[in-house]
Design brief:
The structure holds two protein chains of two kinds. In chain A, 31% of the residues lie in helices and 12% in strands. By secondary structure, chain A is an alpha+beta fold. In chain A, strand 1 and strand 2 form a beta hairpin. Chain B has five domains: 96 residues, Glutaredoxin, CATH 3.40.30.10; 211 residues, 3-Layer(aba) Sandwich (Rossmann fold); 87 residues, Roll (Ubiquitin-like (UB roll)); 88 residues, NADH-ubiquinone oxidoreductase 51kDa subunit, iron-sulphur binding domain (de novo design (two linked rop proteins)), CATH 1.20.1440; 56 residues, Alpha-Beta Plaits (2-Layer Sandwich), CATH 3.30.70. In chain B, strands 9-10-8-7-11 form a five-stranded mixed sheet, sandwiched between helices. In chain B, strands 13-12-16-14-15 form a five-stranded mixed sheet. In chain B, strands 2-1-3-4 form a four-stranded mixed sheet, with helices on one face. In chain B, a hairpin with a 5-residue loop joins strand 12 and strand 13. In chain B, helix 7 runs parallel beside helix 11, helix 18 packs antiparallel against helix 22 and helix 22 packs across helix 23. The termini of chain B are far apart. Classes of the chains: A alpha+beta, B alpha/beta. Chains A and B meet through strand 4 and helix 2 of A and helix 18, helix 19 and helix 20 of B. The structure holds flavin mononucleotide, iron/sulfur cluster and FE2/S2 (inorganic) cluster.
Chain lengths: 240, 615
């Protein structure tokens, strides 16, 4: 077991936990976006930042300087001093949420999240905002839950986007719809999430729960049921 | 070629090289660094060789690594006298060879003129650019043939390795590196000995070493020069580190855009393997270490250690959060020690000469030497190696020769795009880790860009912001979107559309991006903006509140105007304007239509009468 201090309270957690798990286990709320309990932590959205200070070395009572770290990826270490809601933490989350909105200002879900963190206005908007916040949840779910990696994140920086390999419809896609369900911006248009825009533009105007392209690619025998129960539970857990 | 059976065989080989015939015959070294190659040094070398052959002379001509004084290339130096010839052309071969063989004087154009007296300087060591330097890591760059292991061994190469393997325990090697006070030269300045120790302490038999040769800072080329000019020194450093840490496998991660460095490194690896200096049972001591070269495709973020390791493993070159640090879980989850090329290259010197020798240079917390690539508005651009603790003024004026065209020094950006700028009032600041970070800059990996009075600091900051924004990997939000927001704000300001509150917004973004980004790229990306805001706030205000660019650089804030009293109506500008913004009849003062003008500056550069003004 590991002992650490969260918001002035001493807590004990099992070895191998992250700070986020420790916080949740002990009832300290920490907002998240790219985190999902069923997936490996990613550390991309930076909404879960907390202040972390190393314990002072023996014989030195002075507190060590605190730095911001993503709780979802930070492993618990003995003696850490954690603040989950300091002024610095709030300021950072607020601005990060505002930056998330820069690319997703039409998403009511993102607005709700940002408002809960104190965002009132968006000072910067991306001209090419497409509501994808590049959290990587769909990609990781496809890889880690479904196990097929039909989509991945391609390119770098602002150009980073979700796409099947070589930007052509992926034969590996089972059409299970997991990516759609897990998408936090609530844009349930599959074609916007899994990168099949051109394939869908003609046929499907309404949201679909399976991928038309893939089913057309004759993959029906391999269809698996979307793990909806798991996703629903997970959605509860993330508060999204 | 036989393997060296033991350290004594290495010493014997070295002695034999020193005693060999002709090892001290007159030699001309031609700089084969990238700068001089661009100026045609390969043709110069061929011409010198041809001339020497024609005269049947016993003169060795060899291509070396970068001499550093790229500004005056192609460089040729005679040995042992160290007469220096600059800007040598193939046609000069006869004159240079005659000077060496017959002692004939050469024309002044081949000499570097003393900046004070204008008199030609004969010897390399008298050139101010070199005189004020302290070359430890670059010491052999100008004399070795990088493709010759003989050259390196003759210069004492691999003796430090032999010393470590026979006279020192791994713990003693680490203690020596610690006592030398060596700090990582890749950017963060982390104490090298402590890092080695942390990796050594980790349980497990499999440990890896990495040499970070990604060198992504724009304008930086010191790592490249070391690998091109003296690759064996990097190998020797890695071998000593492997022995100290207990690693059997290492990787050099080098960008593919450095073909010559890759070639020299691969050649050095093959030579060292052939002589039993690398591979199994090195020098018969039972110590084994293997080294491979991995090519990177030149993304700045792949220089970040966790992204670099992902790239070596064949995954996308994207950073991951630390902890765990590489020393705990690095390549393929195994303890890994990663250092920069310059850090590795300093190690053999420390082991050969002792920690005290190295620590004698520098300040109490910053020991040894640093290598800078000096570029921008400065007379002597090139690579310089100086002891830590010298002042920026010495670096820029004594070595760099000051600012061209009699302009004023304005600021120096230290530490590349992750660094900060230092204004004129801090020119006497010593260059060491603590002093620079107190001013909002960093030692970084040694990029130094000089700005003069004609540089707009807002535009300067915008340039660096653009670089990091484009190089952001896009994994985390503050860096991916935040740097874009900062860049967009700076672009607006430079375009004359700044708004009150922009400065506060930049400060807010900068602080948050620094504190909350996942990796060092985001954590340092705002530095150029924050440091210019700190030292040149008035320039930002001028752009935003008064719609003027004091340095007259930002296109959205300047207009080109014809001074009627000076204009002769010669029509040259009118004919050269690409967009037809200039009107006027022959011998009548012209006018420029600001609505059409794109502020390209062509009219000003073609006007012979200084009749075009910028306002
Ligand atoms: C964005 C980014 C780029 C980096 N690029 C390099 C590089 O090109 N070369 C390098 O040696 N270190 C680079 N680093 C630093 C490395 O992560 C690492 O700290 C360094 O290689 C450690 O070696 P040292 O202790 O010898 O300095 C970079 C860091 C960041 C955050
Ligand atoms: S800080 Fe920038 S480069 Fe580093 S992980 Fe985040 S987005 Fe990628
Ligand atoms: S939830 Fe931790 S970074 Fe996204």
């Amino acid at each position: 077991m590991i002992q650490l201090t969260i918001d002035d309270r001493r807590v004990t957690v099992a070895e191998g936990r992250t700070l986020l798990e420790a916080c949740r286990e002990h009832g300290f709320p920490v907002p998240t976006l790219c985190y999902h309990p069923a997936l490996k932590p990613y550390g991309g959205c930076r909404l879960c930042v907390v202040e972390v200070a190393q314990p002072p070395p023996p014989g030195d009572a002075r507190p060590r300087p605190a730095r911001l770290a993503a709780a979802c990826t930070y492993p618990c270490e003995p003696g850490l001093v954690v603040r989950t809601n300091s002024e610095a933490v709030q300021r950072s989350r607020r601005l990060t949420a505002e930056l998330l909105l820069a690319g997703a200002y039409q998403s009511p879900e993102m607005w709700a999240l940002a408002k809960s963190l104190g965002v009132e206005q968006v000072r910067f908007q991306l001209p090419e905002a497409d509501n994808c916040v590049v959290c990587g949840l769909c990609v990781r779910a496809c890889q880690e839950i479904v196990g097929v990696s039909a989509i991945s994140l391609i390119k770098r920086g602002m150009a980073k986007q979700v796409s099947p390999p070589f930007e052509i419809a992926s034969a590996a896609c089972l059409g299970c719809g997991t990516c759609v369900l897990i998408c936090p911006t609530g844009v349930l248009r599959l074609e916007d999430v899994s990168g099949y825009r051109s394939a869908h533009a003609a046929g499907a105007a309404e949201a679909r729960e399976y991928c038309q392209t893939c089913s057309e690619l004759d993959l029906e025998p391999h269809f698996v049921a979307a793990p909806e129960a798991l996703l629903a539970a997970a959605r509860e857990g993330t508060g999204l | 070629m036989t393997k060296l059976a033991d350290p004594a065989a290495l010493a014997a080989w070295q002695a034999a090289l020193a005693a060999a015939d002709g090892h001290d015959r007159p030699t001309l070294t031609v700089c084969g660094g990238t700068g001089c190659r661009v100026y045609g040094s390969e043709r110069v070398c061929a011409a010198l060789q041809q001339e020497s052959d024609r005269r049947g002379a016993d003169l060795a001509v060899k291509v070396t690594g970068c001499h550093g004084f790229c500004e005056r290339g192609p460089l040729v130096v005679s040995h042992p006298e160290r007469q220096m010839y600059t800007r040598v052309k193939p046609e000069d071969a006869r004159e240079v060879v005659a000077a060496v063989l017959d002692g004939r004087p050469v024309a002044d154009r081949l000499r570097y003129p003393d900046p004070q007296t204008g008199l030609p300087i004969q010897h390399e060591q008298d050139v101010p650019f070199y005189r004020h330097q302290h070359r430890l890591v670059l010491d052999l760059n100008g004399t070795l043939d990088p493709l010759s292991l003989d050259d390196y061994v003759a210069a004492g190469g691999y003796a430090a390795l032999a010393k470590a393997l026979t006279a020192l325990t791994p713990a003693a090697v680490i203690a020596e590196v610690k006592a030398a006070g060596l700090r990582g030269r890749g950017g963060a300045g982390f104490p090298t000995g402590a890092k080695w120790e942390a990796c050594r302490r980790q349980p497990g038999d499999v440990k890896y070493l990495i040499c970070n040769a990604d060198e992504g800072d724009p304008g930086a080329y010191m790592d490249r020069s070391i690998m091109e000019g003296n690759p064996h020194r990097v190998l020797e450093g890695l071998l000593i580190g492997a022995y100290a840490i207990g690693a059997r496998q290492g990787f050099v991660y080098i960008r593919n855009e450095y073909p010559l460095a890759v070639k020299h490194l691969r050649a050095a690896i093959a030579q060292a393997e052939a002589r039993g200096l690398l591979g199994e049972n090195i020098l018969g001591t039972g110590f084994s270490f293997h080294l491979s070269v991995r090519l990177g495709s030149g993304a700045f973020v792949c220089g970040e250690e966790t992204a670099l390791m992902a790239s070596i493993e064949g995954r996308v070159g994207e950073p991951r959060p630390r902890p765990p640090y590489p020393a705990e879980a690095g390549l393929w989850g195994k303890p890994t020690n990663i250092n920069n090329v310059k850090s590795w290259a300093a190690v053999p010197l420390i082991i050969a000469n002792g920690a005290a020798w190295y620590a004698a240079l520098g300040t109490p917390t910053s020991k040894g030497t640093l290598i800078f690539s000096v570029v921008g508005k400065i007379n002597n651009t090139g690579l310089v190696e100086v002891p830590l603790g010298i002042s920026l003024r010495q670096l820029i004026f004594d070595i760099g020769g000051g600012i061209p065209n009699g302009k004023q020094f304005k600021a120096a950006q230290i530490g590349g795009p992750s660094g900060g700028c230092i204004p004129a009032e801090h020119l006497d600041t010593p260059i060491d880790y603590e002093s620079l970070s107190a001013l909002g800059a960093i030692v970084g990996s040694g990029g130094l860009v000089v700005a003069d009075e004609d540089t707009c600091m807002v535009d300067f900051a915008r340039y660096f912001m653009q670089f990091t924004q484009e190089e952001s990997c896009g994994k985390c939000v503050p860096c991916r979107v935040g740097t874009k927001a900062m860049l967009a704000t700076l672009e607006r300001i430079c375009a004359g559309q700044g708004r009150p509150g922009d400065v506060e917004y930049l400060l807010e973004l900068g602080e948050t991006i620094k504190r909350s980004s996942l990796c060092g790229l985001g954590q340092t990306a705002p530095n150029p903006v924050l440091s210019t805001l700190r030292h040149f706030r008035a320039e930002y205000d001028a752009h935003i509140l008064h719609q003027t660019c004091p340095a007259k650089v930002c296109k959205g804030l300047i207009t080109y105007q014809v001074r009627p009293e000076k204009c002769t109506g010669c029509m040259v500008c009118l004919r050269n304007c690409a967009v037809g913004a200039i009107h006027g009849a022959k011998q009548q003062p012209h006018t420029i239509d600001p609505a059409v003008c794109t502020r390209c500056g062509m009219c000003q550069s073609v006007c012979k009468f200084d009749a075009v003004a910028v306002n």
